[in-house]
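hey m, so remember when u said the tokens were messed up on ur end? i reran from scratch. heres the input so u can diff it against urs
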Amino acid sequence: MRFPPSFVIAGAWVLALGGGAGCQTYPTLKNVPVDCSTQDQYDLSTIDDFEGTLSWFASADSLAPAAGVTATAEANDGGGLCGSKMAVVFRSSHANDWGSAFGNYGFGTRDGSAYEGVAFWARAPGNTGKSLSVGLDDKNTYSSDTVTTNCKQYGDGGMNQPTGGFQDPMGNIVSGVVGAPSLPDQCGNSYSAPLLVSESWRFYTLPFTAFNQTAMPNRVPNAVFSGGNVPGNGLLTTELMSIGFHLPKEAEVELWIDTLSFYRHKGWTGRGDAGVVFDAAQTDR
């Protein structure tokens, strides 16, 4: 995922219903106890535990008035989350055009083909947005000035691509904007998977089969790129280049992420290429 220079870069319901007659008040929102055993059924390969130097950045459209986005490493409440002391916190406000995005520029090239997908702990406490999409790029979709990839970047690599559509960082066409269709070998059509997170910490798993591209000329496979190793979507998990989170426009967001990993079920007998389809699940249900 490549964020164009026209973006601003920044440094960093669980409702319990009370009842009864009279003037009895409703209790406040309650935190659900964290069950660390929900991740015990998996083998995990850590992508980022956020305990060291933070390699994530935040982005929003520079045309959105008073837009504010940050990505910061902060201490977990209560002394830690299942052994992890730190988490990354994404905050976004007044990003009213296409929304906001948070990405890891130090991610690839990375081989996740021995695993089923991506997993992480997440929460969105308080009265903040709970919906998001998780994005992945491989060598067929990612452009880089330092790494040779399979696709090509036309124009300035940003919103004003003369031969490509007007796209957000996840490869989605920006609403209300008309642009020429992308070329089959053009970078930018990232793979994404939707997710709704909860008020309290939960462990989420997203299989590689849950990630899909928009139906554009540079959707893989096409006349230029053969499909990757994931059945149904063509994702090339042997050469993953970036990972990120996209928040909807106009959403007020405080999103906590911890222990971002590749995952596979213990004893998994898949082919090492996400060939077994699992539903995206909130594993503490």
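this time it looks ok to me. DSSP finds no helices and 13 strands in the chain. if urs says something different then somethings off w ur setup not the seq
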